[in-house]
Design goal:
about 20% strand; 3 helices; elongated; alpha+beta; about 25% helix
Length: about 160
């Protein structure tokens, strides 16, 4: 059933997209935020008049993280396994009901996880991208001596 809290899922997506405007992993983390906030509304006490909070951080160069803290639920987060679903003639109604959103998170993120946060739980996803590595400065003693040429000849 639709609840007004579902509107918050779209607001969370826009919030994450705005904060990660220039981030190379923006789209992946917006998708993760969408799934994590929807899960908070559907599968935890957050959807029954509770709350959820969204946090976006960049813990180190080339990495961004989105975390959703909810009001807690009866089960631990687990990614479902849609592998083979539909490929062997299975009907869409035979797909697992729970865990597909976290499977999407697992496929979109570099890594994900969760931890208990007081009475609630925080589920997070990180995405990483290549960063430029600056060349290490050369030591002065590593430079070729003046007048030296390849081949060992004198200048």
């Amino acid at each position: 059933p639709y609840t007004p809290l579902f509107r918050s899922v779209g607001q969370a997506r826009r919030f994450v997209a705005c904060l990660l405007d220039e981030c190379p992993a923006r789209d992946a983390l917006v998708s993760c935020a969408s799934e994590l906030t929807a899960n908070a509304v559907v599968h935890t006490a957050s959807g029954a008049g509770g709350y959820f909070a969204v946090e976006v951080t960049c813990p180190r160069s080339g990495v961004a993280r989105v975390a959703v803290t909810d009001a807690g639920g009866p089960t631990e987060p687990a990614a479902g396994s849609p592998v083979g679903a539909g490929a062997m003639g299975e009907h869409v109604d035979d797909l697992p009901v729970c865990g597909l959103g976290l499977a999407l998170v697992a496929a979109s993120a570099s890594r994900w996880g969760y931890y208990d946060a007081g009475p609630g739980r925080t589920v997070w996803a990180e995405a990483s991208w290549p960063v430029a590595v600056l060349a290490a400065p050369r030591a002065p003693w590593a430079e070729a001596p003046r007048g030296w040429r390849d081949g060992g000849g004198a200048a």
